[in-house]
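Researcher: Here's the sequence for the chain we discussed earlier.
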Amino acid sequence: MARIYPEGMHGAIADGIRAAIPYAEVRTGTLDQPGQGLPPELLERTDVLLWWGHLAHDRVDDALVERVTDRVLGGMGLLVLHSGHYSKVFRKLLGTTCSLSWRNDGERELVWTIDPGHPIAAGVDQPIVLDRHEMYGEPFDIPQPDEVVFISSFAGGEVFRSGVTYRRGRGRIFYFSPGDEAFPVYHHPQIRLVLANAVRWAMPAAPILPPATAFRAERAFTSTERPS
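Model: Thanks. This is the structure I predict for it:
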């Protein structure tokens, strides 16, 4: 992984976002940093959070999971990448195990756009070709997505819902599976395009609020008084 991503996977992901959205302020964080890379003061300034995780899901503090969950419910966008499907945050927000089948034989993956009108799919090749990648396959234990944007097929015959969206509270969530650490996926220009599109899509349209406050504000906005 160090050879493929000399600045870390987070560095490659961040570089792609910076190149595509030059006005964005992009920061990275890792578990070994103070506040596990996401202290409260940084989270409070975050409009869209990209979450990649693998073997250390159990090391993520439950208090951080609660803060991130509340931030999503209040309107922050969340992009969950590759094996982040097993993260505490994603499983809490979706309410299922998020388990799937997998095999890492480094075979070809084709990422097919099945919702070409979706903003996340804007300008994306049909299909995106990944010459070598880890196989993720169905069944994928997730709730029915709000939208399925991408489906992947693999040389071994498997298929997988590789790009799906959800709305939780006021926040938008996008799960995107390409991104195994053994392959240079986050250097692929089409994968970078998908992530940049998804960041724009997930950007909150209104100020992010604590969930209870957001709910009260939503009720106040939608309620009307009966004329006397």
